[in-house]
Design brief:
single chain, mainly alpha, binds protoporphyrin IX containing FE
Amino acid sequence: MQTGMVHLHNFLRWVILVLLLVSILKAYSGWQGKKAFAAGDKKIWLFTMISAHITLLLGLYQVFMGRYGILTTTLPEGTSAMKDKFFRFYWVEHPLGMVIAIILITLGYGMAKKAVSDEIKYKKAFYYFFIALIVVLASIPWPFREIVGRPWFPGMN
Ligand code: HEM
């Protein structure tokens, strides 16, 4: 089950990236094209938020109870998590970056329900999603990252 959860967490990254890109494009074209707010756009933003929240729940489990979890790992004598690049990434940098990104995604979705003009909805959502995308890209353990790198797809090496 543990492996399945890591695999799902890994795979959901692609779902989030694709949905986030579509959300950004929708928000940008709505904003620049001065379009009336569309129910379909709200739906895509909602799916983006839901996939991010599921990934968050899986991540929370990993960071506490996973194979390198805070509660399941004993660091070697004299080592602190902040001095160890691997544990600093998985216990602090990755969770913190992703939680910030997920808050931004939630705020972006929230614009769909705000009582403001459609232009402001699209514009603010665009910025929230765009910054979230940059933070997600910067916080993913891409395979080319030293020490913390993980496979492109679940189960690959
Ligand atoms: C947008 C949100 C997130 C994305 C896209 C994401 C992406 C990833 C990816 C691609 C991996 C590598 C998985 C593998 O080894 O195959 C990973 C691992 C991990 N993530 Fe996330 N993550 C997100 C949010 C979070 C959050 C919020 C937390 C903690 C609160 C978290 C904690 C972890 C941990 C602890 C691992 C290592 C798991 C292990 O190897 O046992 N992640 N994440």
